[in-house]
Amino acid sequence: MPHQQPVTIIMIEDDEGHARLIEKNIRRAGVCNEIRTFANGTAALEHLFSDGVRTSGPFLVLLDLNLPDMNGVDILAKLKSDETLRRAPVVVLTTTDDQREVQRCYDLGANVYITKPVEYESFSQAIRQLGLFLSVIQVPETL
Questions:
Q1: Cα dist from 18 to 22, 27, 79, 110, whole Å
Q2: Is there a contact between 10 and 41 (Cβ–Cβ < 8 Å)?
Q3: Mean pLDDT over all residues of the chain?
Q4: What residue ranges define each of the domains in the chain, with the CATH number in brackets?
């Protein structure tokens, strides 16, 4: 029986205040997984696509769409077009509730879409759902 690795949370958020608030909410929701925060898409993608990370077990991505260097939608598309990374659940956090953008994110494979400013209740509910994800994301068996 393979040992289930804990899921790492990758947060891509350029606003430090938001990042801290989100982390606080995650902790308040009782999730104690490791959180790695990236302030821009370039650094996050480099990290996600580095060999160590791709093969190191399950993770979940909290993705802000409005990043200084690229659109989060592009990051989502890159993740979902990758054989290995596409399995990671993605939670989109953004200040826009433009229906077309929301739809586009879902079309690309986002799991949850949360509009900022994050209302604590809906966020912790989403995080609890993720807690379910976290417990069901199975590390793919290496054949």
A1: 6, 14, 23, 20
A2: no
A3: 82
A4: 8-136 (3.40.50.2300)
